[in-house]
Amino acid sequence: MYNVPMLKKELVAASAEPLILSLLSRGESYGYAIIQDVKARSRDDIQWTDGMLYPVLHRMESNGWIKSRWVEMENGRKRKYYSLRKDGKRALDEQREQWMKVHTVLTGLWGENYV
Predict the structure, then answer these.
(1) Radius of gyration in angstroms for the set of CA atoms belonging to the chain, rounded to a whole number
(2) Whole-model pTM above 0.85?
């Protein structure tokens, strides 16, 4: 058995928007839950920090792709929830198409033995 190296930070950064948009297409969520969901789905290969996630969320909100709302929890603390807007759905569709093109090329180059 061999040890797979950590994903390069450039690949993690490039995949942040489509990952977040994909998760929010399933329903609204908050920052910590998004971080934990990505970590679990990647089997710990992608481990985001607050410092990585929140600038991306803020940029996506400025782009009009997502919206946010504050919710007061039972313990009195507030939590910011994010949800997808129509422009976010369009952005997700565009990014999905681009990633699938890259995936198709790599799959063809590497052969199906590696996919």
Answers:
(1) 16
(2) yes
Give residue 85's domain range: 9-114
One-letter amino acid at 10 equals: E
SS3 category, 84: strand
CATH code: domain of residue 66: 1.10.10.10
- Closest C-alpha to 84, from 5, 2, 20: 20
Give the 3-state secondary structure of residue 52: helix
Which amino acid would we find at residue 50?
D
Helix axes 9-24, 31-41, angle to 10 degrees: 110
Helix, strand, or coil (residue 80):
strand
The total of structural domains in the chain comes to: 1
* Mean pLDDT of each 10-residue bin along the chain, 115 residues long: 70 94 98 97 92 96 98 94 98 97 92 64
